[in-house]
Amino acid sequence: MNKTNKIKTTETLIDLFLHNGDLVDDTKVVECPFSDHCFILCNLTIKISSLLDEDNFREMKNFKSIEDKWNYFKDTLLKIIDNVAPTTTVIAQLFNYSIIFVEIPNDWKTAIVTPLYKNKGSTEDINNYRGISVLPPLAKLFEKLLHKQIIAYLNNNKILSNDQHGFIANHSCESALHEIITEINTIKSKRLIGLLLFKDFKKAFDTVDQKLFILKLRKYGFSDSAISLLLNYFLNRTQYVKIDDVLSDAKHIELGVPQGSVLGPLLFLIYINDLVEFLSNFKVKLFADDTTLIKSGNNLSDLIDDFRNSIKQLITWCKFNRIDINWSKTKLMFISNKKNTNLNKIEYPTHIEIDSNLIR
């Protein structure tokens, strides 16, 4: 049995994989959803059964709504992949219709969430479980198509902060740590006093305000049609919780980016991207939502006063963006090469109070 695992490289660098590697055959461009960038319409070549014949496709074209098109043949689509028949572009048609009509099928926005124990704390405490979210494979394939083009737009226009190291190609936790260590060594070599705040957001991905997110998309040059598609991406999202063989009732999701999705992490990076610019009095290093704030000075007392005044900007940003700080997991550290003398002994505080919270 011969496998077709050829990868066709296109000018748009879309490399969507589908069943045994059959993927993009060629591309077409429609009206530009971004201010200076296009979503690319693709033709995917896949094997389908004769259950979907020419009459089916002609009838599908009569439906105006992508939701109607999807509902028309979604049951038969589940039987397609392993059957042999003439090739067609049914998946590509669905993707293209979603882009043209800025509408995503609701089935693609339904997740199954399984609680996974973190292996610490009481098994009776819900906070000791992590939700593992699973979305339909077609939804992930469609999101990958959008993700590649959105990240290209962000990179080409240099929108994402250089201090962000999470979910970005050629960046990692190690690259973030390298930059933090470099800052520490610089402070020590200049014999200054450094103050580092390691900040933890509370359920950051789950608390993204979608209305504020849309405002930020406009700020970054997303056009009306691009925003409409991403608005629909958030619309009517639901999830079920599954424990063993028991499935809960559906619950609508009003906040946050979808867990387990391809687009979710990227959309979160866009949401918090302005944090670095807003905290201009700090050097900021991020790995997704894990944030390190760095400040330095020659005098400890002045440094702490400056830190207390500057940290108000962080509180303001968090309140506006409706993200809470997990103060119990937020830590403080002083570093210096300054030598203590009898005349000038440095006593570092064991904690600093921030917004009525003691940070140690």
UniProtKB/TrEMBL annotation:
PROSITE patterns: RT_POL (PS50878)
Pfam families: RVT_1
Highest taxon listed in the record's lineage: Eukaryota
Residue ranges annotated for the Reverse transcriptase domain, each copy included: 97-360
Protein name as annotated: Reverse transcriptase domain-containing protein
Phylogenetic lineage: Eukaryota, Metazoa, Spiralia, Gnathifera, Rotifera
